[in-house]
């Protein structure tokens, strides 16, 4: 009976709101596609998006998808409703903060942020802040230009979202990727090798640590990825390994690599030390 109720609840969620209950992502199949204010070709174009752009699909309406606006999309908020936390981010102090297309109270609203949300500030101009709209803005795009993601494409989107400033939302992304387990590993390793930004890298360290911690026999694979000729990547894997084997002495290898305080000789010594610690684990 409970199973039937659950199925009916999921069906009702889809029908009543037209929204997806789980995260659904897609990839644009053509260049210069309009993202519009409404699900009609006559509505105003907010911006153009190109082939390969990854989007999160929020809702379906006739021949249209409602999507989150891309991370490169910028808009404006009234500055007095933002408490600056540092030079890059601000926290919303209003119950509902309108995000507008232009610095004007008459401009079109492209999204809303809630009290306590963290917003990336691009610049300040008088009474207005120019901000990154993601993940608080939305627009509409015709279905014919979107191919829904499956497998690794969906994993790619989750990884690309790891620089999300909200700790709560970041934790959810961590949980999803860890729960996906081994199917994520090849993509996670490719992102580590591409040397991503620091916030994403620390997330990757946490996620890969948790996946390998449940299968210690595979840790040998991590040692093989440590190459002293690539200091940053080697430092990431040293951090992951020490999180798992828990040696007596620990160092922030990735942090040191970012400060140019790690040498190839340091990496070789650290690898040997961690390998010896690993061999002593029962």
Measure the end-to-end span. Answer: 47 Å
How helical, in percent, are the residues?
Answer: 25-40%
Number of domains: 3
Give the number of helices. Answer: 9
- Mean pLDDT value: 86
**SS content category:** alpha+beta
What is the ordering of alpha helices and beta strands? HEEEEEEEEEEEEEEHHHHHHHH
Poorly predicted runs are 1-21
Strand order of the largest sheet: 13-5-4-1-14
Question: What about the largest sheet?
Answer: 5 strands, antiparallel
Tell me the β content: 25-35%
Shape: elongated
Radius of gyration, Cα only, in angstroms?
22 Å
**Number of beta-strand segments:** 14
Write a brief caption for the model:
By secondary structure, the chain is of the alpha+beta class.
Task: Report what the structure shows.
- There is one protein chain.
- With 282 residues, the chain is of the alpha+beta class.
- The protein has nine helices and 14 strands.
List keywords for this structure.
282 residues; alpha+beta; SH3 type barrels; 3 domains; 5-stranded antiparallel sheet; 9 helices; 27% strand; elongated
Topology:
Blueprint: H1 2-17, E1 19-28, E2 33-36, E3 45-49, E4 54-61, E5 64-68, E6 74-78, E7 82-84, E8 89-92, E9 96-100, E10 109-114, E11 118-125, E12 128-132, E13 138-142, E14 146-148, H2 152-160, H3 167-180, H4 185-193, H5 198-213, H6 219-224, H7 231-245, H8 253-258, H9 264-279
Antiparallel strand pairs: 1-4, 1-14, 2-3, 4-5, 5-13, 6-12, 7-8, 8-11, 9-10, 11-12
Helix pairs in contact: 3-5, 4-5, 5-7, 7-9
